[in-house]
Amino acid sequence: MIVVGAGAAGLMAATSAASRGRRVLLLEKNRKLGVKILISGGTRCNITHNCDNTGIIKAFGRNGRFLHSALAALPPPKVVEMIEAAGVATKVEDTGKIFPVSDRAIDVRDALVNMAVNAGATIEPESPVDQIERTDSGFAVQVMGANGRTLRCHSLLITTGGLSYPGCGTTGDGYAWAQQFGHSIVNTVPALVPLLNDAPWANDLKGITIDRMLVQLIEESRPSNSNENGDAAAPKKKRKPKSLANREGSFLFTHFGFSGPAPLDVSREVARHPDRKSLRLICDFLPDMKHEALLNRLADKKRAEGKQQASGLLSEFFPRRLSDQLLIQAGVQLMTRNADLSKANLLSLTDSVKRLPLEVNGTLGFEKAEVTSGGVNLKEVDSKTMQSKLQTNLFFAGEVLDLDGYIGGFNFQSAFSTGWLAGQHV
């Protein structure tokens, strides 16, 4: 068996197959193995998530059901057990994310490499694959570079990743090989990627983090003022905004827009949308407080602190810069005395906190995306084995497949589980 790509999926697949006595050669085009592992989680490596298989499946939306067999073969607790058996202690953080106690991604990478080598796999870095051809007995794999030669194998597993973080070597090589063997590729877009916004007031909030915020990505209708012939026509009635995604989590204002788990988790829908000018993020800065409860709290403060300026109304909840901007967006003058605020002012301020619309102008693209949405069509891959339905002894695992989940270790779990399952069936 030859595995192409020594990332999370490839390393786990090599361990799985070699532990069954298969002769395994793992080829990696980079000098370093598992480059994306090394930079993941801010170089801490979010290994997986502290949840059951159902929780992992839900994180992948409509494509999650493809993972049933893979997760049955290698669920999150088993991944943690294997990593710890390889000498890396783990911890569960409040968010459910599982990290190495050392907070060092290199420890996880080294553990995965050692697992594969100890199982009997051979790993060759700096061995970029140029061409793959079908032969009567399997596949011929042409390797370039100092280790250049043509290798032959019975089974081939492609774990080359997607297009995210191309600096790691993930340049979509696997898609072309998949198409060569008849597979279709679901259109690829960046996912788990920061969002763009060019509103100066929002960009001036750079550096402010809200630990828990609820964001809803909506599509607003933009009625046309022309008919099918291009002639002027009466504007159509605007339809109700369509909700595309909802996520709750940390939110970070940046100089270019928004980052943090909540924005990243809805970024796939932004990247896939054909009309980004119609998109808005509806932000609830206090998801644990009902609209009416906040309105009453502000009314109480108005009565109790009537001589104070409105600029202090939200000081118990938010940093001053954010508090001021929420007031400004609500049309409330910062120097206004609380006693002079009208009911309409309080309603507007409550709406500003609970339903503030923010424009979305796109994403930072694949260069800053943690994963790729899209890839090898899942309908063409057997979910029980990871084998191609179009070519015998051709397997796929990891991000090269049309699988992308939420932030929080879900995508690594998918890579580990699909890689392990493929290794069990070569």
What name does CATH use for the topology of the largest domain? FAD/NAD(P)-binding domain
Question: What is the strand content?
Answer: 15-25%
What summary fits the major beta sheet?
6 strands, antiparallel
Quickly count the domains: 2
| Oligomer classification | single chain
Question: What is the number of helical segments per DSSP (H or I, 4+ residues)?
Answer: 13
CATH architecture of the largest domain: 3-Layer(bba) Sandwich
The average pLDDT value, as a whole number, equals 95
Structural class: alpha+beta
CATH class of the largest domain: Alpha Beta
Strand order in the sheet with the most strands: 12-15-14-13-16-17
Folded structure, characterized:
With 426 residues, the chain is α+β, with helices and mostly antiparallel strands. It has 2 domains: 2-189 and 369-423, FAD/NAD(P)-binding domain (3-Layer(bba) Sandwich); 194-221 and 238-364, Orthogonal Bundle (Helicase, Ruva Protein, domain 3), CATH 1.10.8. Helix content is 31%, strand content 22%. It contains 13 helices and 19 strands. The protein has helices spanning 8-18, 35-43, 53-58, 68-73, 76-85, 105-119, 173-180, 200-203, 261-272, 291-304, 320-329, 343-354, 410-423, and strands spanning 2-4, 25-27, 48-49, 90-92, 97-100, 122-124, 129-135, 138-143, 149-153, 156-158, 185-191, 195-196, 209-219, 242-253, 257-259, 279-284, 356-359, 371-376, 394-396. The strands form 5 sheets. It has a 6-stranded antiparallel β-sheet with strand order 12-15-14-13-16-17. A 5-stranded parallel β-sheet has the order 6-2-1-10-19, covered by helices on one side. The protein has a 3-stranded antiparallel β-sheet with strand order 3-5-4. The chain is elongated and about 85 Å long.
